[in-house]
Amino acid sequence: MNTKHMLKVALIQQAISSDVEANRQKLSLCIREAAAKGARLVVMQELHDTLYFCQTEDTTHFNLAEPIPGLATHFYGSLAKECGIVLVASLFEKRTTGLYHNTAVVFEHDGSIAGKYRKMHIPDDPAYYEKFYFAPGDLGFHPIDTSVGKLGVQVCWDQWYPEGARLMALQGADLLIYPTAIGWESSDTDEEKARQLNAWQLVQRGHAVANGLPVIAVNRCGHEDDPSKQTNGIQFWGHSFVAGPQGEMIAEAGTNEEILLVDIDLSRSENVRRWWPFLRDRRIDEFEGLTERFID
Question: Do 265 and 12 form a contact (C-beta atoms < 8 A)?
Fold first, then answer.
């Protein structure tokens, strides 16, 4: 283990209430605790300030959105500066009236905004009606430069697509990071629940292997009711985790609230990519079809 290249990361897995200010204060305590224990990079889950409002289509929920920069970025930027950490947040962005994004914001340790990423893949499934709220991202797949490395940040549904992870890797990302909100509907069988959780972790561990990079995934936990009563709500399954560049599971949270502190050896990517030179052997001259929706 090369201590010179070790990065202590904190994953904050939380259950969320309807009180935005209480959620922020609760998260601030966790961020301070993580920093006090040596974390230099802290990552929070998707849309951590609010309940997962996308279970229903309700125009009043647009009142939750904020501009960037705005009050939320001031709050989290100040925390990043106070604690001297790089902080990955996930916010409901109001770009202008009638145009909103699901946006990850990265704060540098001086409190400045290092960069942001707007969620590219927007789901529209029962209890996950995100297309009603969010326009697809338009900032592309570009790593964000920080004092702890180049962060390949994406958001939740993006984690199922290998293309985004690859584009981040091709631009020099040191880490792949996914703030997430995913869980079970109560009608799913135990067997189906196990398959879903396994698939969620497996696909992201695959991104780690294919790109020779560590992956950080931070998920919500706790049960959130469906206001429409059309479903029994979502049980967010937690299980936030960090995988190494060979897909090895370095650390994994349980199903409850947790601050998961993990030491990541960034030097391993160099060695793994020497053993498995996938980037060298890519047949980029034969990949034109990837830009097609489907090849008939």
Answer: no
Residue 1 binned pLDDT confidence (cut-offs 50, 70, 90): very low
3-state secondary structure at position 52: coil
**Cβ 125 vs Cβ 134: under 8 Å:** no
Choosing from 26, 94, 116, 119, the catalytic residue is 119
Closest by CA to 9, choosing from 36, 42, 44, is 42
Choose the catalytic residue: 46, 93, 130, 224: 46
Cβ neighbours of 37 (radius 10 Å)? 11
Question: Does the predicted model carry a pTM greater than 0.85?
Answer: yes
Model confidence band, residue 187 (pLDDT cutoffs 50, 70, 90): confident
Q: Provide the domain count of the chain.
A: 1
Euclidean distance between CA atoms 48 and 88, whole angstroms: 11
Residue 77, SS3 per DSSP? helix
Can you give the CATH number for the domain in which 210 is found?
A: 3.60.110.10
Residue from 30, 54, 83, 156 carrying the catalytic annotation: 156
The answer to whether the bond into 143 is cis (omega within 30° of 0) is no
236 within a domain of the structure (yes/no) = yes
Tokens 């008939």, residue?
296
For 131, the 3-state DSSP assignment is helix
Q: Is 54 an annotated catalytic residue?
A: no
Instruction: Please give the residue range of the domain that contains residue 163.
Output: 3-278
